[in-house]
Predict the 3D structure of the following.
Amino acid sequence: MTAQIIGTYFVCLSLIIGSGFVLVGAIGLLKFNDPMTRLHAPTKVGTVGIGMLLVASIIHSFDIGEPSTHEVLIMAFLFVTAPISANFIAKVNIHRRACETPPEPQRDDTWSTLSVPQGQDEA
Amino acid sequence: MTLALQFLNVALAITFVALAIGQIMAMVRLVLGPTSGDRVLALDTMVINALGLVIVLGIHQGVQIYFEVALLIAMLGFVSTVAMARFILRGDIIE
């Protein structure tokens, strides 16, 4: 049992875990019945699913004798951008009134994405 | 070593199939809708699945060049998701 064989088995394990999370996210995206509920399922694909595939890629690069860890860049980029895009899609859902409107804020008149500027009709 | 390589081939095949099924499911959600937020979310998921396919293809061929492709797809996917959401929110991308 050399280190190379153990590394290959770890690559297999990471690939299987990643593909499982990708499938779970896709099923959630398809089967949930509310836009805000559907929003939460594909975040697993972006973080854990692709993260495990990138871990497999790193271990494989050490395995075949060309070590490189620059896949961590993609992982960091995905971890930073996933909440931002999810926040934007949630704002779209609130704006289009596709979900239950959140309760009125305590100090302002209304949520900023729902407010209509002075002298403009609501689109 | 041959047993480990056989396991690796099986795991790569399973991952390819899982990513393809995920891509098809996201495409079904893209067609069904019903709201525009769902369509943006489905397109975002499809970009991320394509990113995974490129990474697994890189493992399959043992080539390092796919790293740049994956990084570019990740950046373009994020920018296009934000642009689409902003267009729905404001009717304009750069005001």
